[in-house]
Amino acid sequence: MTKSLDCNKAFGWAANDTSGILSPFHFSRRDHGDNDVTVKILFCGVCHSDLHMIKNDWGLSHYPLIPGHEIVGIATKVGKNVTKFKEGDRVGVGVIIGSCQSCESCNQDLENYCPEFVFTYNSSSPDGTRNHGGYSDKIVVDHRFVLSFPDGLPSDSGAPLLCAGITMYSPMKYYGMTEEKGKHLGVNGLGGLGHIAVKIAKAFGLKVTVISRSSDKEREAIDRLGADSFLVTTDSQKMKEAIGTMDFVMDTVAADHSLLPLINLLKVNGKLVTVGLPEKPLELPIFPLVLGRKMVGGSQIGGMKETQEMLDFCAKHNIVADIELIKMSDINSAMDRLAKSDVRYRFVIDVANSMNLLESAESKL
Ligand SMILES: NC(=O)c1ccc[n+]([C@@H]2O[C@H](COP(=O)([O-])OP(=O)(O)OC[C@H]3O[C@@H](n4cnc5c(N)ncnc54)[C@H](O)[C@@H]3O)[C@@H](O)[C@H]2O)c1
Ligand SMILES: [Zn+2]
Ligand SMILES: [Zn+2]
After folding, report:
1. Residues of the chain with CATH 3.90.180.10
2. Domain 164-298 has CATH 3.40.50.720
3. Ligand 1 pocket, 189 CB below 6 A?
4. Is the ipTM here above 0.85?
């Protein structure tokens, strides 16, 4: 009994209330079962959803809460029913760690739309143990929700693909952006999701325009990320000229904003795909949709099969995130900067190299 509890002992950084301030937290992972992979976490990306969750923006958070769903690590223990992974394999864990496995969505490899899907954190396992995310030293996950991390992908800059990458890849395929080369995509908001959208869209052969509130990131977007053009929403003349020029707009903005200018950018039959999750509902103008047979849709991450496909695609096309690597102890200032959109373009926590140091410092106190 004592041995099992010791193996389950874990250490991470948790938010304890809506201030969202993260601090060291000792907890237990659930028992490792025959279908499970235990993962020693190396790196974890910092998604804006983590920021929403620690602040309880969506009214869903239960504290203490350890965020993190862009996890890359090493399999350290593999259950006897698991054939796909062995100890020592590099693996990834994303936003979901469970689903019913039998509903219509699960049967179509769309576990992300299963009514019973289980988030990586802020959820519970069947035995009642709270699930905590990747800002921690290890995690126990059912092998069906563990991904093989391709050899060609670096663990640090590859980690954000596990949420930001699949969140951009899946709707590009579903909404038909990849069917014909040269279609014009506008990417609204050049943050963690947006900058990956530019890279993946270019690999699919799309023409990409970044839509942003200021021209601050214009040179980088074009020279480094490979965007074809840059549209500043406060430049009313340029916005007017761009009306009706885009086949698709991907809206990644996390805050309140108006959809009308984005819908106006679409051609007839154009599609606005919303993935950002502002805490309050946005107003949906119906007239321009009706008059232009335009569509507004949503999308949430992707299923496990498609997530693996996306990782392999990104490895093949050398697509990784542009990251700022931080130590675990930097997380609170990183969250403050993320709230101000002051990151180019994703924070990634060097978990293995900063968490253990903290733990040993704590034990000496
Ligand atoms: N649908 C999904 O499956 C899914 C997955 C991951 C994240 N998300 C959500 O997507 C949103 C974005 O996540 P992220 O990690 O990319 O965040 P981020 O903070 O890295 O990026 C958001 C970007 O939008 C920009 N922005 C803010 N207001 C803007 C405005 N009015 N006009 C133009 N740009 C504006 C910011 O400058 C920032 O660059 C969040 O709400 C997050 O919760 C959804
Ligand atoms: Zn995310
Ligand atoms: Zn299901």
Report:
1. 2-161+323-364
2. yes
3. yes
4. yes
Which amino acid residue places its CA nearest to atom 13 of ligand 1?
Answer: 48
Question: What residues pair up with 72 in beta bridges, in sequence order?
Answer: 43, 92
First to last CA, the chain: 27
pLDDT of residue 365: 52
Check if the beta carbon of residue 73 is closer than 8 Å to that of residue 139.
yes
Rg of the chain's alpha carbons, rounded to an integer? Answer: 21
Question: Which residues are in the CB-under-5-Å shell of ion ligand 2?
Answer: 47, 49, 163
Atom from ligand 1 closest to the CA of residue 47:
15
CB 209 within 8 A of CB 186: yes
331/12 Cα distance (integer angstroms): 12
Whole-angstrom distance, CA of residue 23 vs CA of residue 54: 12
Q: Which atom of ligand 1 is nearest to the CA of 274?
A: 1
- pTM of the predicted model as reported, rounded to 2 decimal places: 0.96
CATH number for the domain running over 2-161+323-364: 3.90.180.10
CB 274 within 8 A of CB 294: no
Question: Is it the case that residue 40 has pLDDT exceeding 60?
Answer: yes
